[in-house]
Amino acid sequence: MTAGAEVFARPPLLAIIEHAEDEGSGLIGDMAAGIGLQVLRVGMRDPLPNLDRMPILVVMGGPQAVYGPDQRLRDEVALIHDAVTRGRSILGVCLGAQLLAFACGARVKPGERGPELGLGAITLTGPGRDDPVFAGCGPALPVLHWHGDTFELPRGSCHLASSDAYVNQGFRLGRAYGLQFHIEMDAQLLDAWSRQIPLPDDAQGWLRQTEPLRRGVIARWLQQAVDAVP
């Protein structure tokens, strides 16, 4: 099945959960628009999505802690667990990856090496280089980091990526992908984040140069997710 607006003349297939005003879906939302999506800003009190109506789930980042007292995150963990149990296609980014790991029984904790911030890269493992979503990326992928917490790998998952600071940067479990790093960055997000974390003066140039690689990852994940919809 080929992703494109002309193919999907039906209700949205994909739900994007956002947790903070400045942590939108960026390239992911832009590229998923053709298959039909609904953005739910759970951090701003929108309801959680109905998995019966939207079989593809994207969970974005945010400042919250998975192990904190936020009941809405607990409800979200239950939703993600249900989606994993049903074999749904899921993409968790940063906090979303931590929520996915937690929903799959893994521990999430403060990072022992402190916050990982700014432009950097992740190194793909052998299975990561062979993974269809990361095919063609080579041994490493340029990304932006912004997290203080980290996760352990869920039992039975495939370890996809690491960084110099944190070994667990990405995993796959069934059709669910958890990515601690940010592949969604676009010019608008980068501009907003540059006022909060240290970025070099040429960060927008870095973004333009590296965007094709990250778009490729997103496109392959979306295509895989769309092909799995009954």
What would your notes on this structure say?
- It is a single chain.
- This protein is α/β, with parallel strands linked by helices.
- It has a single domain, classed as Class I glutamine amidotransferase (GATase) domain (Rossmann fold, 3-Layer(aba) Sandwich).
- Helices cover 30% and strands 24% of the residues.
- The chain contains 6 helices and 11 strands.
- The chain has helices at 26-32, 71-85, 95-103, 126-130, 187-193, 203-227, and strands at residues 14-18, 37-41, 56-59, 89-93, 108-110, 116-124, 140-147, 149-151, 158-162, 170-173, 176-179.
- Strands 2-1-3-4-11-10-9-6-7 form a 9-stranded mixed beta sheet, sandwiched between helices. It has a two-stranded antiparallel sheet with strand order 5-8.
- Strand 3, helix 2 (71-85) and strand 4 (89-93) form a beta-alpha-beta unit.
- The longest helix is centred in the C-terminal third of the chain and has 25 residues, at 203-227.
- The N and C termini lie close together (11 Å).
- Residues 1-9 have low confidence and may be disordered.
Which key phrases capture this entry?
globular, Rossmann fold, single chain, two-stranded antiparallel sheet, alpha/beta, disordered N terminus, 11 strands, 230 residues
Helix content bin: 25-40%
**Fraction in beta strands:** 15-25%
Average pLDDT confidence is 92
CATH class: Alpha Beta
The secondary-structure element order is EHEEHEHEEHEEEEEHH
Number of helix segments? Answer: 6
Main pleated-sheet profile:
9 strands, mixed
Backbone CA Rg: 16 Å
User: Could you tell me how far the N terminus lies from the C terminus, measured between alpha carbons in angstroms?
Assistant: 11 Å
> Low-confidence segments, ≥5 residues, pLDDT <50?
1-9
Number of domains: 1
Q: Can you say what the CATH homologous superfamily is? A: Class I glutamine amidotransferase (GATase) domain
Record the strand order, biggest sheet.
2-1-3-4-11-10-9-6-7
The CATH architecture: 3-Layer(aba) Sandwich
Gross morphology is: globular
